Amino acid sequence: MNARIGPGAGPWRRSALSVAWSLCFGLTGCALIHQNGTPYTEIAPAQIDLADDIHLARDGWPAARWWMQYHDTQLDALIDQALSGAPTMVIARTRVAQAKSDVELVRTGSSLQVAAIALVDREHVSAHGFLGPFAMNEPALGLTGPWYTEGVVGLGASLNVDLWGKQRAQVAASLGVSNARLAESSAVELELSTDVAQLYYGIQTTYQLIDLLNESHEVAVFGVKAHDARVARGLESRTRLEEARAQQLGIERQIVSAQDQVRQFRESLRALVGAGPEDLPAIRPVALPRSQAALPATLSYELLARRPDLQAMRWYVQASFDRIDAAKAAFYPSFDIKAFFGFNALHLADLFTHASQQINLIPGLYLPIFDGGRLNANLSGAREGSNLLIEQYNQAVLNAVRDVAQTGSRLQALDEEAELQKKRIESVAFARDSVEAHYQRGLANRVAALEARQPVIAEQVALLTLNGQLLSQEIALTKALGGGYRADAPVELNPR
């Protein structure tokens, strides 16, 4: 239903009363809400916590640039390179810019729109239509039909009056999506930085593994030469020689595998930071840093503000509530005003004369009385979509707590394993030192003294593996705790 006011439409007061009457009629006759649904509830605070038996020596949350604690300039440069130019980072920033544009687009829906209008219409008037008399050619009567060249020049304006907050709800929903995209970009930064650190320390761990394997290889090579000389003199069977050679070949195979692993890590790192074949700097070996892992005493709602992915999901949920508000507002009458001021004439020569002036003011009222269930279906879809997001968010929170708990527990176990492995190395080293002492006193040969080093090297490899896992799990814990991200406060969810 539309109420229009224009030239010849009657007195203004009578038109205003007509509009008021139409508005009252619309309020009593608009479509009814039948499928509002029930909002799901977010996860309870008691489920956002850790078990009492999970703890580390240190506690606290990661710093914003958490990787700086390792004091490694190579790592700093690689992460900065990734955050500035990695393709995934560029995509995330583009999504943020796109969301901001969407906000502005939705916001302009309730603003005054003004457009300049100019058209020329060459038309043939039908003698049997509504303008039939104009089809005659009677110049004395001002009729020069049936062909006319009509011209229109002026300004057209429109304004949607947001009586029930539909437009405001749509703007709020788009703002929620924009804020979610910002949080997602922080989540991408966290993903990038932790992945770069994982690959970098994977390379450093493999470098140290190659050093230990080379040391073991030197011992194996000497053993093969010694056994070969003894076989040549008939002092022992060839079996010992072949066993020594098999050990040497096994070590060489491990060295080749480790070198290939370094290349694989490097190529993965290059793709991650978006570097070209020559743009990734050489990575020189450095010692692995000591563990800096820390676990907060409690998580609770603090985890929601610390995890950018959870904050993004909360914004999406909040935006879904605003979409529900917009869907509800669609049940009520909408009101707009259109206007035109300019010139309109059937002859171009008369276009810019005072008599050709035209003014239109057209208030319009739209009443959704019968819609075939479209509005209820739209509201039901908005509600179900919101409930789906709430459940996805609840599961994401549970997964986040699980990640923290599992990573913290694994770190705790690795710490204990590393301490036990150090004691094991001390015991094995005692046997090595004993054989070395016998060799120094002439009670054992050099081959036995060198071969006694192999078990120690093997245990050192095991300790290196544990230290590499410790560092990897420490970085994973940093990621699980949000990597230093800190929102002002978790988005407050208000289901509607």
Automatic annotation (TrEMBL):
InterPro entries: MdtP/NodT-like, OMP_efflux. It comes from the Bacteria. It is a lipid-anchor. GO terms for cellular component: plasma membrane. It is found in: Cell membrane; Membrane. One of its GO terms (molecular function) is efflux transmembrane transporter activity. Keywords: Lipoprotein, Membrane, Palmitate, Signal, Transmembrane, Transmembrane beta strand. The keyword Coiled coil does not apply. Coiled coil: none annotated. Belongs to the outer membrane factor (OMF) (TC 1.B.17) family. This is Outer membrane protein, multidrug efflux system.
